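Give me structure tokens for this 79-residue protein.
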Amino acid sequence: MSTLLIEKYVDGTCVEKLHLPVTPLQLLAKLLPAKARRDMLRHGLDIDALLNDPPTAFTEQWLDVEEKKVAKRIRISRQ
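Here you go.
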């Protein structure tokens, strides 16, 4: 089963990892409003590519966020 790996980095160190199965996420993604998809894409997160591209063609995506005034990077990759 294909999964998404979501990793949270602080100062270059991975502090948290999460594995999610792709199939249920594909079903849930269909419920996302178009505006939410556009907003995520504007911030660098392409949901369609994450969930629907073949894993061999998939490239990782990075998202920069700030949580509790601490800069963090989120890496999303497909396995």
